[in-house]
Specification:
Blueprint: E1 5-13, E2 19-28, E3 33-37, H1 44-51, E4 59-64, E5 67-68, H2 73-78, E6 80-83, H3 95-105, H4 112-121, H5 137-149, E7 155-159, H6 167-182, E8 186-190, H7 194-200, E9 203-208, E10 211-217, H8 218-225, E11 228-234, E12 251-252, E13 258-263, H9 272-282, E14 286-293, H10 296-304
Parallel strand pairs: 3-8, 3-9, 6-7, 7-8
Antiparallel strand pairs: 1-2, 1-4, 4-5, 9-10, 11-13, 11-14, 12-13
Helix pairs in contact: 3-5
């Protein structure tokens, strides 16, 4: 099956000489949730803006649903719904009219049932006749999603969609994302809430300094780079890691009451049994121990910090 989005050799350079994107190659499958992670200024919004036809690339090409975003812009753009970071909408228009207008912009016939369904799904029904300026920040974010979905796109871009949104609204929006994916809509999101990407995404891409550092199935990424950490609560605080435990490269907490040991749980030899035996031989007692799985956030920090391969 042809990917719904294909990016080849995409570059973006500005007159100042700054290169926002450097040779991006990316394919996104129909119906998947793809999370694009990266620090501020990494190139996430630039990449999305080029795919959506809002910014012109210096070099390379993008196809959406088989349509080139430059040569066949109108067809490609009709397949895309975009929820940008900024909240841009007419402050004095009623909520319902705003969503209906967005649908009309793409040449779609009026569909009151669809618009009403969006407003209900996004908990905007009670505000349907309110002016946009009367909405809270979270409600305006919901309205932006309703506007992006009004023309029934096949691809939905969510650029930091839950920024400034409270927990209840965030939960509702992610429930909607799941329902959209079930209907076959492809979701591409950028987020600083890495736990959301860990929970929601099928694949994860990490971009840093304009380059795609990694694109990987989320589960495979966790298996490949995810580690476990053994944490031992000591019976008595230590001034430092005993020389006799140097082989395990342990970390001691600032208060000297906890030893931490990172290991690969799938390795043939984790080093955990031998560590515990050596601690017993040295008389280093502990009162509790626990293991902690490395999170996607840990992996992300390692990747953008250049510490992970």
């Amino acid at each position: 099956m042809e990917p719904i989005i294909t990016v080849n050799g995409l570059e973006k350079a500005y007159a100042s000489g700054h290169k926002a994107l450097k040779g991006i190659d990316l394919e996104i499958s129909r119906g998947e949730i793809f999370a694009l992670l990266g620090p501020n200024g990494a190139g996430k919004t630039t990449l999305i803006s080029i795919i959506c036809g809002l910014v012109t690339a210096t070099r390379g090409s993008v196809r959406v649903g088989g349509h080139d975003t430059v040569r066949d812009y109108k067809r490609a753009r009709s397949l895309i719904g975009l929820v940008p970071q900024e909240l841009h909408t007419d402050a004095f228009e009623p909520v319902r009219a705003t969503v209906e207008f967005s649908r009309g912009l793409f040449g779609k016939r009026p569909d009151s049932g669809l618009v009403d369904g969006l407003l209900r799904d996004l908990s905007l029904w009670d505000k349907r006749d309110a002016k946009v300026r009367e909405l809270s920040g979270g409600m305006k974010r919901r309205l932006m999603i309703a506007k992006a979905l009004a023309h029934e796109p096949e691809v939905l871009f969510l650029d930091e969609p839950t920024a400034g949104v409270d927990v209840a609204l965030r939960r509702d929006m992610w429930a909607l994302v799941r329902r959209l994916r079930e209907r076959g809509v492809t979701i591409i999101l950028t987020t600083h809430y890495i736990e959301e990407a860990e929970e929601m995404a099928d694949r994860v891409g990490v971009i840093n300094k304009g380059e795609l550092v990694l694109v990987e199935e989320k589960d495979a990424l966790m298996r490949k780079l995810g580690k476990k950490e053994l944490r031992l609560t000591l019976a008595e605080p230590l001034p430092g890691v005993p020389p006799g435990l140097a082989d395990w490269k342990l970390e001691l907490s600032a208060d000297g009451r906890e030893l931490r040991y990172g290991f690969d749980a799938k390795a043939e030899r984790t080093g955990v049994p031998s560590l515990l035996a050596r601690m017993r031989d040295l008389g280093v007692a502990f009162t509790d121990l626990e293991t902690r799985q490395t999170s996607l956030e840990d992996i992300f920090v390692d990747l953008v910090g250049g510490k992970a391969a």
